Amino acid sequence: MMSNPQDQTASFMYLLWDDRFLVEKPYQVFVPLPTGVPEECQSNMEFGAADEQVVTDIRGCREEFSLDNNGFAVSRLATKLQTFSDCDEIERVYLAEVSNLLRERMESVERIVIFDWRVRVSM
Hints:
Low-confidence stretches: none
Strand content: 5-15%
Mean pLDDT: 89
Distance between the termini: 28 Å
Number of strands: 4
Shape: extended
Helix content: 10-25%
């Protein structure tokens, strides 16, 4: 049951468990496979749908969440980036800004590594 009029229900896809993950990490190859490599080598993952979930609108209460208590935190970041269409500029400007924000928010962090980032486009 939704508790806030701004809350929404949504369907999500989740990675389905496979016992091979006990000895092999889940993977997906995002580049074309070399000629002769079987198509099933593109990924060892399978996804399945779950029941609809409530997605809670947390606008207005972001300070209630913390990395220590919730495993995530919500922050605002004013970026100098004008558009998210240039990957080189995203890496140079935006990811540097995100690193600086994390460094400010997290005590005694020695190193920040941002990896496997993607620009998502609504279809």
